[in-house]
Amino acid sequence: MRPDLIGGEGYLRNCWYVAGRSEDFGRELTALTMLEEQIVIYRDTKGAAIALEDACPHRKLPLSRGTIEGDHVVCGYHGLTFDCTGECVIAPTQLDNPPRRAAVQSYPAEDRWGFLWLWMGDPEAGRPGPDHRHSQFRQPVLGQDAKGRDGDGPAITSTSPTTSWTPAMSLGCI
């Protein structure tokens, strides 16, 4: 099996996927399923998107049913608290020594072109950010923010689309 398909039959893993519009994710816990994986997304106090596995390692209660305290997610069952990397930083019964094995998977997340993108592949793989050089994402209907910016640069007034582009190519999948 190809390495980019590890973890699921038929899914390309080592590439970026759109989770939704950037504006749809805020300081509340939002649950979604991508590539048959349960994920919870929220924004930290600085506005950065955080994506974690939506299952507490203790009893698999969805973290999306918990709460946000500062930049951390607190499980609603026993109060295990996870930081943006998925590491358990507080365990109510082990305050001096949170269990290191009680961790959840984290997914790199980036806001670009008005969308929130998640890296669903191997976290150790070299992963470039979603490729912004392709003109399709610079068209007004496909991802500029409300001020006409493409997510990481000045306002774009016009571009001409190319004809040989595919999303998978621009995101490093092919």
Describe the structure.
- This protein is mainly beta.
- It has 1 helix and 11 strands.
- The chain has one helix spanning 167-170, and strands at residues 16-21, 30-34, 37-43, 49-53, 67-69, 72-74, 81-82, 88-90, 106-107, 109-112, 115-119.
- Strands 2-3-4-9 form a 4-stranded antiparallel β-sheet, with no helix packed on it. Strands 5-6-7-8 form a 4-stranded antiparallel β-sheet, with no helix packed on it.
Short synopsis of the structure:
The protein has 174 residues and is mostly beta strands. It has one helix at residues 167-170; strands at 16-21, 30-34, 37-43, 49-53, 67-69, 72-74, 81-82, 88-90, 106-107, 109-112, 115-119.
Distance between the termini: 16 Å
Helical residue percent band: under 10%
Secondary-structure element pattern, one letter each: EEEEEEEEEEEH
Mean pLDDT: 79
Q: Which structural class matches the secondary elements?
A: mainly beta
What overall geometry do the principal axes of the alpha carbons give?
globular
Helix/strand layout:
Elements: E1 16-21, E2 30-34, E3 37-43, E4 49-53, E5 67-69, E6 72-74, E7 81-82, E8 88-90, E9 106-107, E10 109-112, E11 115-119, H1 167-170
Antiparallel strand pairs: 1-11, 2-3, 3-4, 4-9, 5-6, 6-7, 7-8, 10-11
